[in-house]
Amino acid sequence: MRGALRRLFGGRARRRWVHLILGGALAMPYVLVGSVIVGPLTGVDDVFGSLPLQLASFALGLPLAAVTSLFPLTRPLESAAVRALCGVDGDDALAHGPARTRAERARTALWFTLHLGFGGIVAGMSLAVPPFAVVLMVLPLFAGLRHSPLDLPDVLDHGWTSALSPLAGLAVLLALAGCAAGCGALLARWAPALLGPTPQDRLAAAEARAADLAVRNRLARELHDSVGHALSAVTLQASAARRLLGTDPEFVREALAAIEETTRRTVGELDAVLGVLRDGDAPGTAPAPTLATDLDGLLRRTRAAGQPVSATVGTDPAALPPLVSREAYRIVQEGLSNALKHAGTPVAVRIAADDGHLEITVENALGTARSPRPGGGHGLRGVADRVRLLGGTARAGPSADTWCLSVRLPLTAPATTAEASARPLPRGTA
């Protein structure tokens, strides 16, 4: 019983009732235009004095409403009203913009006609039924109402109707509420189909979200690899310089010089990445580092932090494709950064070209692990993304008494139109 009353008189039902009454208010100008047509055709001066002529005016006005619904703002306004009053969940269930195609305009016209049609009926009933129901409920108290000029049904002239008329009045009100709730529920059910985006709109929105996510993922990777590595290196360089400040001034000078070079270079990379985020601004001019342009500098700055690094390069970095060289640089950088943060043991870097592939190995002994940084753990995920987008393979994990990051990249990278979703790099092949 309580659930039935909530469906008839609850907050959602009341809001949908208001939505229907608004439809009835919007229908009034079209009904007036219809009455101008019906009056001369029937020869009746007072069209609104006859219920059949009122209905005829209403029926003539609805096609006019369908035509005027082609106005571009109709669909956005109706969608906003449905969101606010009909309880349609989901921001993407209804379209935000005007109808563009013929099918969208036809669905909008059908919705507008239904809204005004149901709204006109419910609004008319809402005006006429409550006074009639009140008269029925008070009829036993005011017997003179039977002979008043209210045009009451003849059955009410019988005395036995006095006991039943209050129940009849209550039933009439419940019928009105049920009619309003039913019409409101139907409109709420039909709204997504008639005012919602088309499959093409949903596909375009999904592609836009995928493109935005691709940019965000790439920016996150670039910031993590460039800024994260630089901060790790600077922290360790400063720590080593502090420990040897009084015993090895030459090492301290080299560490401070490395800190200066690292921060200056990272500021340029950060400006390049943030330039993409500035709406209306051109991207930064600092080029992305590659193996050809900064492998030696990367190794030098890592060694300046006190990390022993040996490197074997079996190919000419300048001969590598720019995209492969750039991504390979970030992979080597991440491998060195992980060794700096977690191991603190000598690192061996090997880069070679074999059978149309670039092979990268970053290996270090499993020393005493440093304390992990809170919130870390995204570096290998970024490596997995880079390798997957280039069509390569990667392995990361312990091997005997060493930790090894092994990557194999094709020298002819496949074209890609969208970023893959981020997922952690497994201990097997990525």
TrEMBL record:
<dbReference type="InterPro" id="IPR050482">
    <property type="entry name" value="Sensor_HK_TwoCompSys"/>
</dbReference>
<dbReference type="GO" id="GO:0005524">
    <property type="term" value="F:ATP binding"/>
</dbReference>
<feature type="transmembrane region" description="Helical">
    <location>
        <begin position="20"/>
        <end position="41"/>
    </location>
</feature>
<dbReference type="InterPro" id="IPR036890">
    <property type="entry name" value="HATPase_C_sf"/>
</dbReference>
<dbReference type="GO" id="GO:0000155">
    <property type="term" value="F:phosphorelay sensor kinase activity"/>
</dbReference>
<feature type="transmembrane region" description="Helical">
    <location>
        <begin position="110"/>
        <end position="143"/>
    </location>
</feature>
<protein>
    <recommendedName>
        <fullName>histidine kinase</fullName>
        <ecNumber>2.7.13.3</ecNumber>
    </recommendedName>
</protein>
<keyword id="KW-0067">ATP-binding</keyword>
<keyword id="KW-0418">Kinase</keyword>
<dbReference type="Pfam" id="PF02518">
    <property type="entry name" value="HATPase_c"/>
</dbReference>
<dbReference type="GO" id="GO:0016020">
    <property type="term" value="C:membrane"/>
</dbReference>
<keyword id="KW-0808">Transferase</keyword>
<dbReference type="Pfam" id="PF07730">
    <property type="entry name" value="HisKA_3"/>
</dbReference>
<keyword id="KW-0902">Two-component regulatory system</keyword>
<feature type="domain" description="Signal transduction histidine kinase subgroup 3 dimerisation and phosphoacceptor">
    <location>
        <begin position="216"/>
        <end position="280"/>
    </location>
</feature>
<keyword id="KW-0597">Phosphoprotein</keyword>
<keyword id="KW-0472">Membrane</keyword>
<feature type="transmembrane region" description="Helical">
    <location>
        <begin position="163"/>
        <end position="188"/>
    </location>
</feature>
<dbReference type="GO" id="GO:0046983">
    <property type="term" value="F:protein dimerization activity"/>
</dbReference>
<keyword id="KW-0812">Transmembrane</keyword>
<dbReference type="InterPro" id="IPR003594">
    <property type="entry name" value="HATPase_dom"/>
</dbReference>
<feature type="transmembrane region" description="Helical">
    <location>
        <begin position="53"/>
        <end position="73"/>
    </location>
</feature>
<keyword id="KW-0547">Nucleotide-binding</keyword>
<keyword id="KW-1133">Transmembrane helix</keyword>
<dbReference type="InterPro" id="IPR011712">
    <property type="entry name" value="Sig_transdc_His_kin_sub3_dim/P"/>
</dbReference>
<feature type="domain" description="Histidine kinase/HSP90-like ATPase">
    <location>
        <begin position="326"/>
        <end position="411"/>
    </location>
</feature>
